[in-house]
Write a structure and sequence with these properties.
4-stranded antiparallel sheet
Length: 326
């Protein structure tokens, strides 16, 4: 049986960040739902919806199964997602915030997503892998390492589904473009990105809620010590799998350094065409000319229809604060 979830999408191409229009648009969504009032005349014509599209158009009309009564609209929880440009250096902060500030507007609500958030600091490179100098690792570079490690370490957690379900922070800009935005193509000109990621995978941060960072060895990826991490072969054999299709994490990371993002291609061919689907597209940071990759923040909890405007405003204000503080 085919099911099509109902979505309302606020068009960010028209509702520019900081314009104040997003909350007003969210209120119009609430009004639209109340005016539509599905279920009020069931089982009449308004119980059916015609959906256009190559994949599902031949299956229309779809029957509205929920709500069955118009007053039940007040009981429906609508899952929230936020799409916004975000400087890479902010991503690490959000990884940390997702652990310590579970009620933040961009923080995931499910514990499994908090567990999969990987924070990366300079301490992870104390052994100077590939001869890298710590002074060369910018904030944006560190945050890119955090992002790829979050996906790499969670690669086996969603077998059979799109890799977008690996974490709650999903890039719409492809990883190869973000690699260049972080200037890693210059920083690692004569070095192996994969081998450096492999060393960084040996470390993890305490996730028990301590404000102070406590770095330890991740025993899943290392047989060594803080000073000599000694990575094992776990990352070498890690894979993303959907049905019979699979790609190696190593091939993905090595490809990024050479300008290709096979994870985005894999998701397009076998998943949901979400990860990196906007290719090289970026947007400007609020109040500045700086370009930033675009992300979708998922698993943010849910809202009743009367809270749409408030929750959208809180999310927009959070994005602006992060931009201004970056």
């Amino acid at each position: 049986m085919w099911e099509v979830p109902t979505e309302y999408i606020l068009d960010g191409r028209r509702l520019k960040l900081g314009s104040g229009k997003a909350a007003r648009a969210a209120q119009r969504v609430t009004n639209d739902l109340e005016d539509w009032s599905p279920g009020a005349n069931a089982p009449d014509f308004d119980r059916f919806v015609w959906v256009e599209g190559e994949k599902v158009g031949h299956l229309t009309p779809f029957t509205i199964t929920k709500p069955t009564k118009s007053q039940d609209l007040n009981k429906i929880d609508w899952a929230r997602r936020v799409t916004a440009p975000m400087p890479l250096r902010v991503i690490n902060k959000l990884m940390r915030q997702g652990i310590l500030d579970p009620d933040g507007p961009l923080s995931p609500v499910l514990p499994k997503f908090k567990e999969r958030m990987v924070w990366v600091g300079l301490e992870y490179f104390r052994s100077r892998p590939q001869g890298i100098e710590l002074r060369d690792l910018t904030d944006d570079a560190l945050r890119f390492f955090a992002l790829v490690l979050s996906y790499a370490k969670a690669s086996g957690s969603c077998s059979g589904r799109s890799p977008k379900f690996s974490t709650s922070i999903m890039p719409r800009t492809d990883f190869a473009t973000m690699f260049r935005l972080a200037n890693l193509d210059n920083i690692l000109r004569d070095k192996s990105f994969y081998e450096i990621v492999k060393i960084a995978s040996c470390y993890e941060i305490d996730k028990t809620g301590h404000i102070k960072r406590v770095i330890s060895i991740d025993p899943r990826y290392s047989n060594g010590t803080l000073e000599e991490p000694l990575p094992n072969n776990k990352l070498d054999t890690a894979q993303f799998v959907i049905g019979e299709a699979k790609i190696n994490v190593r091939d993905w990371l090595e490809g990024i350094q050479h300008g290709t993002d096979i994870l985005s291609e894999f998701d397009a061919d076998h998943g949901d065409t979400q990860i990196g689907a906007l290719g090289m597209r970026t947007e400007r940071v609020f109040g500045r000319q700086e370009l930033a990759p675009i992300f979708v923040f998922r698993n943010l909890g849910s809202s009743k229809k009367e809270a749409f405007a408030r929750d959208v405003q809180e999310a927009e204000e959070c994005v602006i604060r992060l931009h201004m503080g970056s």
